[in-house]
Amino acid sequence: MKLYRLQRTQALPLSPEEAWPFFSSPLNLPSLTPAWLNLRIVGDVPDHMFSGIVIPYRVTPAFGLSVTWITEITHMDMPHYFVDEQRFGPYRFWQHLHRFQPRPGGLEMTDTVHYGLKHGPLGRLLHTLIIRRRLEEIFDFRFVKLQSIFEPEKGQGILEGSAWP
User: Which 8-state DSSP code applies to residue 28?
Assistant: First the structure.
């Protein structure tokens, strides 16, 4: 299995302690996701996550096909980071580290996603043709949305980082 990596960094004008309530609420994830993905939480979840919480979603990643995505918050150090890992869903492997580090004037938020695909050579081809671009679109949307929430005077801004193997 080939392991891929996506990393994005964004500066926001608030402290990790101020950011934590927003980012630790699973209920905010749909608003940070493009409408075309049609992300819906399909079970009862608390307002704020904790290590061990399991969160069920439905998403429509491509071709109008809706799939179940179950994630577990496996690690958490409030207000510095948390990790969600797919337990069931479209990827063979998915681990997403959300890190919040203080910096002058606010925080640096870094998303690091490691993921592997199903279906061997077909999965690698789909990654090249569709999946990589779709993930970039999701994180581009998230960047702009977070900036509009926390820094509306900046408009759409500039993407501050993207790394792909």
Answer: G
